[in-house]
Structures are given as C-alpha cells and as structure tokens.
Amino acid sequence: MMRWKSTKTTRSQEGIRHRRNLQKRVSNIKIVQNVKLTVSGSFTVEAALLMTIMIPVLTALIYGTFYVHDNGVMQGIACELAAMGSNLAWEKDRTGELEKRKKALISSRFTDTRQATVSVSAGKDRVTVSGSGEFYFPGLVMRLFAGSTRKIFKGWSRELLRPAEKIRKVRGLEYVAEFLD
C-alpha cells in the first residue's frame, strides 16, 4: 500500500524557503558589487577637446553656405532686374517699376547680408544692374582666416532688343524665300 504525502506546508517551512531565496539574492548582489568596472576618463577629455575644434568649424561651414547663398541671391537680383528693365524698355514708367521691384527683392531674400544696395541704370540701348553688400561672419574661426565681413559685388547688363524690327526682317526673308521658290 502506498502512502500519500500531504501537500500542506507549515509556516516554518515557508519561512525557511523564503530565507534561502533571500540569501541567494543577497549573494548575487554581493557578486555584482565585487566586480569592478575600470573605465578611464580619457574618452571624455578627448571628446571635449575635439568638440572645441569641431563646433566652430561646423559653424563656419554653415555660415559659408549662407555666404554662397547670398552671392547667388545678389546675382539673381541683378539678372532679374536687368531682364525686367529690358522687357519694360518702351514703357513710360520703366524706372518706377524697376525701383518697386528692386525694393521688394532686396527686403526679402538675403540671409545675413547687411547694407545691400542695388543700382539700376537704364539707357537707350542697355540696362545695367549692379549690387553690393557686406556679409557678416560671427565667431573667431572666420575672423582668423577671412576677416569678420566679406564683400559681395555682382552685376549684370542686358542689351535692349527691338523685337518689331527683327520680326519684320524675318518675315521679309520668308517672303523673299517664297518668291524665289
């Protein structure tokens, strides 16, 4: 005959099990505390030294792209005003229209160019536009290598075309070509 063991545990047995589990956990913690991590601080020092060089260089690079942008904007303004002056060659209020457009272009397109000026001279056969300004570089890096300001000078000239005369010449050549055939 088989005897069945009872599955009931007494409070004293539960207490013993609980103490054993706690002892295992405490011994694991002691093992973790005894492990020493040796990390030197040289990485932190090297990163700090590297960042003192990298941040100003990156800032100078960003401002360099702003300078190139403002150069392109100045050239675009000169080209746009010259083309507009050519298109308005036979209008009565050509200079007034060019002045309005010039003010609108200068006020809205530059990132950091100061003292931007654009001059437009419209003659009988040619429209000439020239623009200038100063671009300011903050910080020490650009001041050491290039100075704190850089000048921007751009210009464009366009000949005034008389399309009516050219159209008449082309149509006259077409007429002569038809006559000869």
Quick take:
The protein is 61% helix and 18% strand.
Key structural traits:
alpha+beta; about 180 residues; single chain; 5 helices
Whole-number mean pLDDT: 79
Order of helices and strands: HHHEEHEH
Biggest sheet: strands side by side, in what order? Answer: 1-2-3
**Would you report the number of β strands?**
3
Describe the structure.
Helix 2 (42-87) runs antiparallel to helix 3. The longest helix has 46 residues, at 42-87. 61% of the residues lie in helices and 18% in strands. The chain starts with 10 loop residues before the first helix and ends with a helix. The chain is built from five helices and three strands. It is elongated, with a radius of gyration of 41 Å. The chain has a three-stranded antiparallel β-sheet, with helices on one face.
